[in-house]
Specification:
This protein has two domains: about 1-230, Aldehyde Dehydrogenase, Chain A, domain 1 (3-Layer(aba) Sandwich), CATH 3.40.605.10; about 235-405, 3-Layer(aba) Sandwich (Aldehyde Dehydrogenase, Chain A, domain 2). It has 13 helices and 15 strands. The chain has helices at about 20-40, 45-60, 60-75, 75-100, 135-145, 160-170, 190-195, 210-220, 245-255, 270-290, 305-320, 360-370, 385-395; strands spanning about 1-5, 15-20, 105, 115, 125-130, 150-155, 180, 200-205, 225-230, 235, 265-270, 325-330, 345, 380-385, 405. The strands form five sheets. A five-stranded parallel beta sheet has the order 7-6-5-8-9, with helices on both faces. A four-stranded parallel beta sheet has the order 11-10-14-15, sandwiched between helices. Helix 13 links the parallel strand 14 (about 380-385) and strand 15. Helix 3 (about 60-75) packs across helix 4 (about 75-100) and helix 9 (about 245-255) crosses helix 10. The longest helix is centred in the N-terminal third of the chain and has 25 residues, at about 75-100.
Length: about 400
């Protein structure tokens, strides 16, 4: 079977990648484990030198890597360049701080001496999404490998080219051969990799459904796993917040990667007294943002990453309209090529019970849970003071991860 990279702006097939056979995947795991035995014995200073060279290589290749990102997932070219540079910065950050983060920690017990030591585990499997196809690799691989582990990557199918390009950058930076490898495999082959005796743990960034599958597979063989799962971020405006500042941040965040970011505001919850004014300003700002060719330097947002994702959004919009929502911008697929689908609506998104909130108390309740049953994992509250914002942030939630913006 071949994995396809399709340009979501043009529907053009960029590349076809033959999927690794089970035998090829097992050979890669053996080679990566052998590299781990060498890498784990290297000093923090020697590992840091490798990551600093990797950072330099990423910066030297910003343009080809950015164009690859844009071609595979439709991210505007300016944002793609920023992603590569951010990835280089992460390499340097963990190169500088890993030794400090992982130093032995003495603890008080009734024994003569007790301490915590952080030891590498072995080969770690990373399962990463397409929305930040270079950053998502580095943000897990840098800390994992600076701790002495080696890693194999299963990237999103539509970002296979980015996975192989980053693998090449690792090789050029002088890491032990095979310390970082990309597996070209489809989803059904992932469980066998998790279960493989040479894989010590797994980390996933993806959907709750994928998280369940990975946690189940890892738990069945008693392997550690780290999960970062998609959220449903509400953007809550309090009565006395700075509306202009909130709209600036809300529009920027909502349009980043065409809204395909876990911390982008999925819905705006606004006091009824401010709703008309907020809506008018929001529609004006959203309508003025340029949608178009992601290779164009002036494009603010491009297509969704795949046609099936566009179809999912179209279905959600249609469901919302059927329930009484009003489409304010777009609401239809753009004629011609590409997975373009602009949409802004008021009323009843398919994942929330309400859109407009009359008070801080009801804002807190509506921030917490989506109709589908998944609690929100991040929330953005715009308020004029720390006390007001933190009051919202500390409202009841099964998850404690959130961010608060004070204007």
């Amino acid at each position: 079977m071949a994995l396809l990279s399709v340009n979501p702006a043009t529907d053009e097939t960029i590349a076809r990648y033959d999927e690794h056979s089970r035998e090829t995947s097992e050979e890669i795991l053996r080679l990566t484990h052998a590299a781990y035995e060498q890498w784990r014995k290297m000093s923090f200073a020697d590992r840091a030198a490798c990551f600093n060279r990797l950072a330099a290589g990423l910066r030297e290749n910003v343009e080809p890597l950015a164009r690859l990102i844009t071609g595979e997932v439709g991210k505007p070219i300016r944002d793609a360049r920023a992603e590569v540079n951010k990835s280089a910065g992460a390499c340097e950050y963990f190169a500088e701080h890993a030794a400090e983060f992982l130093r032995d920690e003495e603890v008080a017990t009734d024994a003569r001496k007790s301490y915590v030591r952080y030891e590498p585990l072995g080969v770690i499997l990373g399962i990463m999404p397409w929305n930040f196809p270079v950053w998502q690799i580095i943000r897990y691989a840098a800390p994992v490998m600076m701790a002495g582990n080696a890693t194999v990557l299963k990237h999103a199918n539509n970002a296979t080219g980015c996975a192989l390009a980053v693998e090449e950058q690792f090789a050029r930076a002088g890491f032990p051969e095979h310390a970082f490898r990309a597996l070209v495999i489809d989803i059904p082959a992932v469980r066998a990799v998790i279960e493989h005796s040479l894989v010590a743990g797994v980390t996933l960034t993806g959907s709750p459904r994928a998280g369940k599958e990975v946690a189940s597979a890892a738990g069945a063989v008693l392997k550690k796993c780290v999960l970062e799962l998609g959220g449903s971020d509400p953007f809550v405006l309090l009565e006395d917040a700075d509306i202009d500042a909130a709209i600036d941040a809300g529009v920027t965040s909502r349009l980043l990667v065409s809204g395909q970011v876990c911390i982008s505001p999925k819905r705006f919850i606004v006091p009824r007294a401010l709703a008309a004014d907020f809506e008018q300003r929001l529609v004006a700002r959203m309508g003025a943002a340029k949608m178009g060719d992601p290779m164009d330097e002036d494009t603010v947002y491009g297509p969704l990453a795949r046609r099936d994702l566009r179809d999912t959004v179209a279905r959600q919009v249609n469901e919302s309209v059927a329930r009484g929502a009003n489409v304010l911008i777009g609401g239809n697929a753009v004629d011609g090529q590409g997975a373009y689908y602009p949409a802004l609506e008021r009323g009843h998104p398919p994942t929330t019970k309400k859109f407009l909130a009359p008070s801080r108390r009801s804002s807190s309740r509506r921030m917490n849970t989506t109709q589908s049953g998944w609690p929100t994992i991040r929330r953005t509250a715009w308020a004029p003071s720390c006390s007001a914002a933190t009051s919202i942030a500390r409202s009841r939630s099964r998850y404690r991860s959130r961010r608060v913006v004070v204007s």
